Amino acid sequence: DIDKYLVNPALLFRNIKDVKEIEHQFGSLTEEQIDIIRKFWVNFNPNKNTQEKEEFLRVWSVLNAVYSEFNIALRAKGLAYEGMIFREAAENIISGKYPTMKWEMFHFAGFNALNRCEQILMKHLKAEGKARFYWDYDNCYIFSGKFPSAGIFLRENIKVFGNDMPEGWQYNTLLSSETKALSRKVINTSSDVAQAKLIPTILNSFPEIRSEDAHHTAVILADENLLPAVLTSIPENHNEFNITMGFPLKFSGVYSFINLILNLHRNRRILDDKIYFHHSDILKILKSDLIAPLAEEEFKEINDQIVNQNILWFPADFQVKSEIAKLILKKIKTPSELNRYLTDILLLVVSSTGVDRKSEDNRQRVRNELIYRVILSLNRLNTILESAEIDFSLETYLRIVDANLRSISVPFSGEPLKGIQIMGILETRALDFKNIMVLSVNEGILPSPITGASFIPYNLRTSFGMPDINHQEAIYAYHFYRLLHRAENAVFLYNSNSEGLRAGEMSRFLLQLKYDENLAPEFFFHDFMIRTRCSVSQEVERTDEQNRKLISLYDSASRNSLLTPTAINTWLNCSMQFYYRYVCNLREKDELLPEIDHALLGDMLHEIMQRIYKGFERRIIYSDEIDRIRGNRKVLGRLIEDVLVEKFTSMPDDLTGGGELIAREILYEYINKILEFDRLVSPFTIAGLEEYSDFILKFDSNDASFNIRTGGKIDRIDQVPSVTRIVDYKTGKISEKISSVPSLFEEDRDKDGDAWLQTLLYCEAYLVSHPGVRVRPSVYRIRSSVRGEQDDMLLIKEGRDPGIYLDDYGTIRNEFVSLLTETVNKMLFSKEPFRMTQKIEKCSYCPYAGLCMRKY
Questions:
Q1: What's CA 693's distance to the chain center, in Å?
Q2: What confidence category does residue 58 fall into, taking pLDDT thresholds of 50, 70 and 90?
Q3: E strand or H helix at 775
């Protein structure tokens, strides 16, 4: 701007510096403002000249030196930017160094706002008799004062250069004539995409568009970011389109893939010269459409390994087979390596999918064109790297690559006089269309705000004759109204939805049309009928086929068909959840855990306790032995660390996050509580650790007999004087008591009774294989504090009765087995429907809540 408008840079930059110093010295804050700032910035002192203030002022003082030295450096290399070339040409003309022209005549058409350099060149050519000027306008905004901003530049241009349009050219266009046959409509839509989706409907509303005159119809995008949505909305019956604008690379799958690769290296960590990539970055790349088909089997293996072993940080030296996987996991240390790395990946993608033009579909051809443009950009960046004038860090270069790719627009090639035209608002200059459709006619988009942030304040721009906001509005006003000169059918669409700083208002140009008697368009509101989803039935009727499926799952001698306590508890908590999980076989997807959740913490605790007591089986354990175990924190810490690495992550210590550190402390506290309680009940003998135990329930149905095996893995079996304990460790919420044994089998009950039903079922399984033994259910409620020896026992208490502690499972055995049999019979053999829980709060942690469509 400084060069194109022939501004004195030294004078301008001196003024900017002076303005900033005045603001610094006299732009004082009120006491109230100072108090507010101090709430956020304790050391704030408005009167003290800090280093930050000095740095702020220094920016403005160096601008002229930066400008001057940059020009000198470019000139020494024989390089220039556009404004620099303009300025030199204009200054040569001013000084009498007229350029030698090999053409006898120049014709200027489609111009509007001219900068100072263009004006000087055009005046010189006019004085030489070598220029003709053609200005297209309507009298209403040149002479009558209507829409004055549209004619600001043209009035001056006509005055200075004259007008060489042919005689008889009509300057009273459809914009100023009263013609009833004209159609002008404004459509209010609820989103940007909705505008694009209306294109087929609007095109069909125009008079018949034949292939030979389709180029008289234009779809104009005030917001060029809408192009991807427009391309997907082109109707099938209009297969000929000419796109005169570029497709932004940032909206393509190619850019998304490259961005995933860049994020892989942005987020990596280096330890002892080894590189580790974050699991989420690896998984996203492996699932990318661009490379997923190239090594599908290996990518699945890597994905499964990351998820199953919970690898948060994936090592770059991991052994892989395919060429593409080796490339992606390559160690990158310098910008040059990154440039080559990206190029190699893209070339491998293209070569792996083939480049035979005859067999390529359009989608693949477009993708390869996008890749080609990216490689061109990378090659240009590589010349900067090889110049060795600037030393980039890898992090800086990652940002430069991303910024460069985001600015790339891939041009389309087509036949300009064939098909419906799709273009931007500035590309319509000097063109007339019979039918036009303009999208995104919103305030803030049309007119577009002055492009880019500027160091030069608005008042200085105006005083030095540089383009400002008014200048920008005048440019867009002319192009907007010129489109209406000869358009018989015009449709304008705008987005009325307010989001963030976006007001969702129609453009000021539409408001001007609205209040003009001759031009007032019709206004329409396009909305969507939003309906709530159909409610899902509260219950599902059971079929014979479903019963047969359930029976086949559990009527087997194999332990793989075990009816687990989890399945029984699921039925009792919510039979609809049982239906989804066991009848429909909708299992929760295995996912990598970025943090240790409650279930994983419980698994780790069970594993650690098994390892602690592994060497004590069949031995009597006394209190002093437990004290020794509790007192050796180093050994316990190492044990916790081993299980943490095995169960959760395989990354080195230096990459361990805060979540793991917290988990270590929690596990230590839980183990300490278990050992503390074990000390209270000692001496005891370990009879079994993590042992499977099951039994058979017999049923007769439809003249057939079925054996249903039920049971599971018991955490610990130990023997204290006169009783065998069936021990289960629980880290969740567990009820301290139950009102009665039947309450455990009530349908739609709370989950806090699950542990007791599970442990009682294990007692039955153990007693079946060890008849005559006195067995006691024992649940370690680890979240509770240890108060006494009865903390692990089941209290059966109803109302104000003192209740009894269950010290012998045999006293309730018959009742428990009878109720269990009745419940399993309902689960597998009855016609009882599957019902949703009536306690909506349960749905908040149910993985199938979305299927039931319930609000909770």
A1: 47
A2: confident
A3: strand 775-781
Token digits for 170? 């009509």
Q: What is the DSSP letter of 149?
A: G
CB-based burial, 699-724: b 16+ in 10 Å, e otherwise: beeeeeebebbbbbebbbbbbeeebb
Dist CA 516 CA 144 (whole Å): 14
Q: In what order do the strands lie in the sheet with 775-781?
A: 620-621, 684-701, 704-720, 723-730, 775-781
CA–CA dist 279, 594 (Å, integer): 9
Residue 821's DSSP bridge partners are none
Residues 778 and 759: beta-carbon distance below 8 Å: yes
**Is the N-terminal amide bond of 9 cis, ω within 30° of 0?**
no
Strand pairing report for 241-243 and 247-248: unpaired
pLDDT confidence bin for 35, thresholds 50/70/90: confident
- Among 698, 705, 644, smallest CA distance to 671 is for 644
**Cβ contacts of residue 671 below 8 Å, gap of 6+?**
605, 608, 609, 612, 636, 640
Token pair of 134 as six digits: 């053609």
Backbone angles phi, psi at 738, to 5 degrees: -130, 155
Tens digit of each residue's pLDDT (9 = 90 or more) over 436-450: 999 999 998 999 876
**757 within 8 A of 569, measured Cβ to Cβ:** yes
Distances (CA, A) of 416 to 136, 363, 489, 593: 21, 22, 21, 55
Q: Residue 359 has what pLDDT?
A: 42
Locus of tokens 């009848």? 583
Instruction: Give 38's pLDDT tier (boundaries 50, 70, 90).
Output: low
Q: Please provide the DSSP assignment of 577-641 as one string.
A: HHIIIIIS--PPPP---SS--HHHHHHHHHHHHHHHSGGGBTSEE-HHHHHHHHH-HHHHHHHHH
The predicted model gives 269-289 an average pLDDT of: 86
Terminal-to-terminal C-alpha distance of the chain: 59
User: Which residue reads 């303005």 in tokens?
Assistant: 19
Token pair 């990652």 in the structure block, residue: 398
- DSSP E strands: which ranges in 343-483? 409-410, 420-424, 435-439
Handedness of CA 650, 655, 657, 660 (dihedral sign): positive
pLDDT single digits (tens) 757-799: 999 999 999 999 999 899 999 999 888 766 666 788 999 988 7
Q: In 3-state terms, what secondary structure has residue 744? A: helix
Give just the sign of the alpha carbon dihedral 650, 653, 657, 663.
Answer: positive
- pLDDT average, residue stretch 74-102: 93
Considering just the CA atoms, what is the radius of gyration of the chain in Å? 39
Structure tokens at 136: 């297209």
Task: Give pLDDT, residue 457.
Answer: 85
| Crossing angle for the helix pair 813-828 and 565-573, to the nearest 10 degrees | 70
Alpha carbon distance 442, 448 (integer Å): 9
> Which of 595, 646, 564 minimizes the C-alpha distance to 824?
564
Distance CA 174, CA 817 (A): 92
Q: In what order do the strands lie in the sheet with 274-278?
A: 269-271, 274-278, 313-315
For the record, the structure tokens of 678 come out as 């074990």
Q: Which strands make up the sheet holding 795-796, listed edge to edge? A: 737-738, 795-796, 804-805
Task: Please name the residues in contact with 795: beta carbons below 8 A apart, sequence gap of 6 or more.
Answer: 736, 737, 738, 803, 804, 805, 806
Peptide bond into 447 cis (omega under 30): yes
Q: Judge contact between 257 and 291, C-beta under 8 A.
A: yes
Amino acid at 652: P
Ramachandran class of 500: left when φ > 0, alpha when ψ lies in -120 to 50, beta otherwise: left
DSSP letter for each residue of 3-55: TTTT--HHHHHHHHHHHHHHHHHH-PPPHHHHHHHHHH-TT--TTS--HHHHH
